[in-house]
Design brief:
The complex is a heterodimer. Chain A is mainly alpha-helical. Chain A contains three helices and no strands. In chain A, α2 packs antiparallel against α3. The chains are: A mainly alpha, B mainly alpha.
């Protein structure tokens, strides 16, 4: 069992190593005197920022997170069905379609009430 | 050479406890939320060690995927302009310490009194398929009711947001 997860572990180490490694190499090869003046400015990344970085977002965006959470829960219910799809048969398919249909109703309602509109 | 299962367990336990401590101790509440995400991932790793792969997938998808996003959103949305204003010091340090210690003692006693019997029955061959068979066979009514519960949650969320929009156009 652990051998299968060792592959995931190697991927994880690779990902972390890439991130940490690039920062470390940057730190090693950069010119040592502290940058000053225009060197500290944001360049090639759009406009100069105005005001603090930590701004408040609209409370409406919480709805997207909430709807995402609910459909995430639906996905969890789909997993066991998908794994046993072959042997569960037609009745299970119909039952699952009813389940998805009830939740599609929720999606339709959110759509109708412009809950999905990005502001 | 200790066996690898124990090594992984202690590594994951250290990750979970360390990131949980970071959640409580860090000054910036956004960083606390991100460390909460790490805690959820560590718990998912513990589930995998217990051979509960489906539970680990649920933990990753629901907690690390959705709940963490929800918490980050909630923090971002209600935060004041200055981050320090949303993470105030509590003056009730001592009472909080006492309450936490009492809670810890209660949990420790409860865990200590538990009889650990191991498996009461052998786990099913294909746990996911037997789960699906129960969902769609014997407990299908409860299963569809769960869908209606989720539907009402969606409708409730949309209604709350819509109400706010109409009252303040």
């Amino acid at each position: 069992m652990l051998q299968q997860y060792a592959i995931i572990g190697i991927f994880l180490l690779g990902a972390v190593g890439t991130a940490v490694g690039s920062i470390v190499v940057n730190w090693l090869v950069r010119p040592k005197p502290e940058p000053k003046g225009d060197k500290r400015a944001t360049y090639e990344c759009g406009l100069e920022t105005i005001g603090p970085t930590w701004v408040q977002f609209k409370a409406r965006y919480f709805l997207y997170a909430l709807v995402f959470l609910l459909f995430d829960v639906e996905t969890i219910f789909l997993y066991p069905w998908a794994v046993g799809f072959q042997e569960l048969g037609f009745l299970a398919f119909v039952e699952m379609m009813i389940f998805i249909g009830i939740l599609a109703l929720g999606l339709w309602y959110a759509w109708k009430e412009e809950g999905l509109k990005w502001l | 050479m200790p066996d690898s299962q124990a090594v992984f367990f202690w590594l994951l336990a250290a990750l979970v406890i360390g990131s949980a401590l970071a959640v409580v101790l860090l000054k910036n509440i956004v960083h606390s939320a991100l460390y909460l995400f790490l805690t959820f991932v560590g718990v998912a790793g513990l589930y995998i060690l217990l051979h509960a792969e489906f539970l680990a997938a649920v933990q990753l998808l629901i907690y690390a995927g959705a709940i963490a996003v929800l918490i980050v959103f909630a923090v971002m949305l209600v935060r004041r302009g200055d981050i320090r204003l949303s993470n105030l010091y509590s003056i009730h340090f001592l009472p909080a310490l006492v309450v936490s210690l009492v809670l810890f003692a209660l949990v420790a006693v409860a865990v200590g009194r538990q009889l650990w019997l191991g498996y009461l029955a052998p786990p099913p061959e294909e746990p996911l398929v037997s789960l699906a068979r129960n969902f769609l066979g014997e407990y299908v009514i409860a299963f569809e009711v769960a869908a209606i519960l989720l539907l009402s949650a969606i409708v409730g969320a949309v209604l709350i947001v819509r109400g706010r929009r109409r009252s303040a156009p």
